[in-house]
Design goal:
The chain has one helix and 24 strands. By secondary structure, the chain is mainly beta. The two termini are 37 Å apart.
């Protein structure tokens, strides 16, 4: 083979790799990147429909469902430095499809469902955990009982948005002030939905994707909406490339990027990993999840890693304990 033929052959091979396509709803990796996945120690309890948050070097994975559909109050803690797990005090009440966020060394867990998926009973409970004391206390209940919603702290206020109530999707946006232990209603989200993902960048709260009908059948959306807590206003931004629900998202410190992982529809789960750049208002595909799943947790750290833990590898009720780490370069 002469030099010219060799160059043509190499170029052709690279072109084939770059133009790889998506099959059966799974995202194919279509761009060159230095980011990569690694594997951490598996979570002790396989479960799905979990929530998680981080304090210091410890990721807290909270609640969920086991393989039989039992509702769990389990709280397991992963130390990102030691790659080890431990179990701490369980939730005062077992919950799945709940939400959690942390502030000033304490964890706030809100809403969810107290019974099986087939008999959805939403909660309005607010539980507050002190890791130093390893104890839970109860805060003032949320005005609207719901599960499968999103909760994020912005400037010391907990915003709880969307979700599924007793028999309807809600657009509710309710804010909790830990200092006063009071709730106040805020501007409703334009698109009612549940099983969405959320993240905060530059004190702006983004709600991404989700489901726009009842629990079943699954009708997914890719709508992305941004909430400004200071102005108490919403605006629609560029939609996520794929329509997904049962997803999780994480933003990276000191950047304008949000990563959205996983998802499901009626027949399959997704390995999608899509990055949104807030500044450019553009999306890019990233290296796919090694394990496609829904009902998963995603938590970012200060060293540009995202830990994607638990979830269901098959559509509907299924569980896993995987702990996959996205290393961003």
């Amino acid at each position: 083979m002469n030099y010219k033929s060799f160059i043509v052959s190499v170029f052709t091979l690279l072109l084939i790799v770059v133009i790889s396509s998506t099959f059966d709803g799974q995202q194919a990796f279509t761009e060159t990147t230095e980011s990569s996945w690694s594997i951490g120690t598996s979570m002790p309890t396989p479960r799905t429909e979990v929530t998680a948050t981080i304090i210091g070097n410890n990721i807290y994975v909270i609640g969920g469902l086991d393989k039989s559909g039992k509702v769990l109050g389990t709280v397991e803690v992963y130390n990102i430095k030691n790659d080890t797990w431990k179990t701490v005090a369980p939730l005062p009440q077992p919950l799945h499809h709940t939400a959690a966020s942390s502030l000033n060394g304490k964890i706030y867990v809100i809403g969810g469902s107290t019974t099986t998926i087939d008999n959805w009973v939403p909660s309005n409970k607010l539980f507050i955990y002190d890791p130093i004391e390893d104890k839970w206390i109860e805060g003032k209940p949320m005005p609207t009982a719901r599960g499968a919603m999103n909760a994020n702290f912005v400037n010391g206020i907990l915003y709880v948005i969307g979700g599924y109530a007793s028999s309807q999707i809600v657009d509710v946006n309710e804010a909790y002030d830990p200092l006063s232990n009071e709730w106040i209603s805020k501007s409703s989200m334009p698109t009612p939905r549940h099983h969405a993902a959320s993240a905060v960048v530059d004190d702006q709260l983004f709600v991404i994707g989700g489901r726009t009908v009842g629990l079943y059948p699954i009708v997914n959306t890719n709508i992305t909406e941004r909430y400004d807590p200071i102005e108490d206003k919403w605006m629609t931004v560029e939609s996520m490339p794929s329509e997904r629900s049962g997803i999780s998202a994480a933003s990276i410190n000191n950047t304008t990027t949000i990563y959205v992982f996983g998802g499901e529809d009626l027949t399959k789960t997704y390995n999608n990993n899509e990055k949104y750049d807030v500044k450019s208002n553009e999306w890019e595909s990233q290296e796919p999840l090694p394990t496609p799943r829904h009902g998963l947790a995603a938590v970012s750290t200060n060293d540009d890693k995202i830990y994607v833990i638990g979830g269901g590898p098959a559509s509907g009720l299924s569980v896993t304990s995987v702990n996959e780490i996205f290393n961003i370069r």
